[in-house]
Design a protein that fits this description.
This protein is α+β, with helices and mostly antiparallel strands and 184 residues long. Helix content is 17%, strand content 28%. The strands form 2 sheets. Strands 3-2-1-8 form a 4-stranded mixed β-sheet, with no helix packed on it. Strands 4-5-6-7 form a 4-stranded antiparallel β-sheet, with no helix packed on it. β6 and β7 form a beta hairpin. The termini are far apart. The C terminus is likely disordered.
Length: 184
């Protein structure tokens, strides 16, 4: 049985070796004919021009790469508003103010309180005066029919001091929903 198996393997190998040589002969012939006239040419690199050397003669002036020139000297501030780092953060403080959308207002007639409906990432949240939102310690100070008014506490934007300053930001009602108010 093993002699028959050996003979069949040799016969199969001989048959396969005869098939492989002429299979792509026409493609090889076309490639040889097409590449006869092709000659690659690479342009020589341009000659480098030497730049004139200029001496730095401003030894007595301020170094242009000094850190003092790039970053102003910070001095300790005199106080002012500071955020409360110990309070628990609210849900809407996890999102930048730019990603929040003011989509509506809910008013309660008996208590005259207003709650803003804020949407972020497809989820609607309810916020009222005194809640925090945004990543700059923004606290809601007023909710109107068209906007939410926030007071944010940020570090001095000029970079001159380490003080915290308050700035007012607004979140406008999303277009297309103006005038929609729900009363309970």
């Amino acid at each position: 049985m093993s002699a028959l198996r050996l003979f069949s393997l040799l016969l199969l190998a001989a048959a396969l070796s005869g098939c492989g040589d002429a299979e792509h002969q026409d493609i090889k012939q076309w490639m040889d004919e097409s590449s006869r006239d092709l000659r690659g040419r690479v342009k020589p690199l341009p000659e480098l021009k030497p730049f004139p050397l200029i001496a730095y003669e401003a030894h007595d002036q301020m170094d242009p790469f000094s850190a003092n020139r790039v970053e102003p000297e910070k001095r300790e501030g005199g106080g002012g508003a500071r955020p409360d780092f110990d309070r628990p953060r609210e849900q809407l403080e996890n999102f930048p103010l730019e990603s929040l959308q003011y989509i509506g207002v809910v008013s309660k007639t008996k208590s005259k309180s207003r709650h803003a409906l804020v949407q972020v990432d497809g989820v609607v949240y309810q916020a009222s005066k005194g809640n925090y939102m945004g990543q700059n310690f923004g606290r809601i100070v007023a909710i109107t029919d068209t906007e939410i008014i926030l007071k944010e506490i940020v570090q001095d934007p000029s970079g001159q001091t380490t003080d915290w300053v308050e700035r007012q930001m607004t979140l406008q009602l999303l277009d297309g929903t103006a005038g929609k108010e729900s009363k309970k």
